[in-house]
Please model this.
Amino acid sequence: MPAAAALLLVSDHVNGSLHVLTVPDGTVTGRLTGRHLSEHAGFLALPSGRVACVDDRRGEVLVLDPFGDELVELAVPVAVPAEHLACDPSGRLLAVTTGLGRNTEPWSDLLTVVDLATQDTARVRTRAGEPGVTVLGGGDPLVVLRHREPGALAVHRFADLLGAPPGCPAVTPHALLPLPDDGHGDAQAPGSGHVFAATGAGVHRARRKGDALVAEAVIPWGSPARGWYLRLDTRRQALWSTLRGGPPDPLRWPEWTNQAWRHDLGTGRTLRTELGPGLVFRLALARHHTAFTRLHPDGDELILLGPDDAVRRLPLPAMEGAPRRGGTPWEGVQRRAVAASPGSDWVAVTRGGHGEVHVVDAHTGHEAARVRLSTPLHHGGHMTLRTRDDGAEGDPVGR
Model:
């Protein structure tokens, strides 16, 4: 397979399958069945085109090598349901937090840490909730948990966690940095040692100093809306989010406002771009474009934001079971997943419930292929797109 080849990993977390497809033609080069991957924890980019993900039913973190002879390179037991997944900048040290799963109240306080090189693993108790996580590198790597209610960044030494005795002992943070109670969204900039957390007030920024964190100035949203999703752009060292505004009632989701938010870490410049009403959440970073999907009762679309900040909109065919007026966009409805690679111009979008994946050339805006899988991709499924040397591992947080 050519080094520049792009491969798409498509997970149906409801039906329990994963397909590896060549892009753009959609040839299946690998498949797993009986694997229910955590859609919330997502896919974590590792060096050499590999990815990590969590099987929520079997309780394993999987290291997948879609470019290798064997798709499953490693499987290590971890606590589930997986909430967030992250690694240190080397891609060796992993941390997996647990969340609600199919429950209405926080109940699990388990954190799992894994050394992929030695396959050593340990489970400890931290604090029940839905913690975000980042793993800072350096001579003594740190695990940083982002807690809510009360909000805090809790700092733990990775070596201390990995050396914990059996029995899932409770652990105390080595250091704490206060946060607002409404944190949601995490990112890390490995080159500068910064960690970021999205809150209603803006993006809280902290810098590693020894075995602790030092707070720096909050990056404002510059809008009455806020971001619930945060990721690092490895192409130009920027932070991205989608700002959601409008009525908080989820039954009025067609009235939600959405803006693409980009903050350049080098210049400190922030740019906001109107995306339109409805549901916009996760985004994907292609070589020269940033891709969003927008769901709305009047019609869905793929939105491509180009390097000159030009907006291109591509209509998407309707989904049976799509979110409707008078209902929420979350429960019992179909959605869409979007994927891209910073080493490719291809963008992939799912059509939940139909088992279809649209493959679009972001450079031209044309749909190059429409792949039909043998699985329905309920809830939109989840995807990641990799080339072997795309540098996506520069963002060491699961997406």
Q: What stands out?
A: The mean pLDDT is 96.
